[in-house]
Amino acid sequence: MERLKNKVAVITGGANGIGKATALKFIKEGAQVAIWDITKEKGEEAAKELGSDTKFYQVDTTSFEQVEKAAQQTYQDFGKIDILINNAGITQDATLAKMTIEQWQKVLDVNLNGVFFCTKAISPFMVEQACGRIVNASSVVGVYGNFGQTNYVATKAGVIGMTKTWAKELGRKGITVNAIAPGFIATEMVKSIPEKVINMLEGKTPLGRLGQPEEIANAYAFLASDEASFISGTTLNVDGAVTI
Ligand code: NAI
């Protein structure tokens, strides 16, 4: 089944982890994929692995200038942009007492400004064609909070707010805007968490394990597909029920 046939998708943070698994899933579903990532080597490697329907663009999503340039270039290369997956994100954890202003600012720059910049640059192409799908990466911690993640939690809660706002602003233009809230997924991001904390998280998860990047990719694909045509403004938990 090719649920994304003839669609052009921009996936930020597509060089690694969940973003790379999403690029692979989208290709399998018939899409053409523009991987936008700050990491050149891994991005080029991913695009090569995924084949001729994938193209890599080196973009730092914290720079509106780079984002605008990449949006124009992607539009020129593919002729349209149907789907935006705002997936790039980082953590820089510390307790409130120990968090530096630089840590606070850096995480806001990538996880909040980056999402705003990409959506601001790409949504006009969707408005012009009167259809589009935007899916943003939030997190379960954006809803429930998390020890040592003031900066990250602020951004992931902010993403839920932006998702609802854009769903209201862009709905009549034929564009749906949703977010996903993953639980703890086995990627580089989670590798920095101590093993004992991972064991504790697995214990707290009714499904008894971490999620896999492919399981988040499946949720992105669903929300980007025509099957989700009347879903907008929602945040879908993909978390093994860790939050109930
Ligand atoms: P990852 O660290 O494996 O990959 C993130 C990608 O974003 C990397 O390829 C990195 O180069 C890219 N990136 C970072 N800064 C960038 C920038 N300024 N411009 C362009 N690209 C940039 O992360 P992972 O785990 O795949 O996470 C993907 C998304 O899912 C993130 O938004 C994350 O916050 C979210 N998420 C992840 C969870 C997890 O347990 N792994 C849980 C909940 C949410």
Sketch the topology as an H/E string, one letter per element: EHEHEHEHEHHEHHHE
User: Structural class of the helix and strand makeup?
Assistant: alpha/beta
So, the CATH homologous superfamily? NAD(P)-binding Rossmann-like Domain
Question: What is the rounded Rg?
Answer: 17 Å
The distinct bound ligands, ions and cofactors come out as: 1,4-dihydronicotinamide adenine dinucleotide
Count of helical stretches: 9
Helix content: 40-55%
Strand order in space, largest sheet: 3-2-1-4-5-6-7
Which architecture per CATH?
A: 3-Layer(aba) Sandwich
CATH class: Alpha Beta
Question: What does it look like?
Answer:
The protein has 244 residues and is an alpha/beta fold. It has a single domain, classed as Rossmann fold, CATH 3.40.50.720. Helices cover 49% and strands 16% of the residues. It has 9 helices and 7 strands. Strands 3-2-1-4-5-6-7 form a 7-stranded parallel β-sheet, sandwiched between helices. Strand 2, helix 2 and strand 3 form a beta-alpha-beta unit. The two termini are 33 Å apart. The model has no long low-confidence stretch (mean pLDDT 97). The site of 1,4-dihydronicotinamide adenine dinucleotide has 29 residues, from helix 1, helix 4 and helix 7. It catalyses: a (3R)-hydroxyacyl-[ACP] + NADP(+) = a 3-oxoacyl-[ACP] + NADPH + H(+). One of its GO terms (molecular function) is 3-oxoacyl-[acyl-carrier-protein] reductase (NADPH) activity.
Give me the secondary-structure topology.
Elements: E1 8-12, H1 17-28, E2 32-37, H2 40-50, E3 54-58, H3 64-78, E4 83-86, H4 101-129, E5 132-137, H5 140-144, H6 150-170, E6 175-182, H7 188-191, H8 195-204, H9 213-224, E7 235-238
Parallel strand pairs: 1-2, 1-4, 2-3, 4-5, 5-6, 6-7
Helix pairs in contact: 1-9, 3-4, 4-6
The structure holds 1,4-dihydronicotinamide adenine dinucleotide (NAI).
Domain Ketoreductase: 7-183
Pfam families: adh_short_C2
Family: Belongs to the short-chain dehydrogenases/reductases (SDR) family.
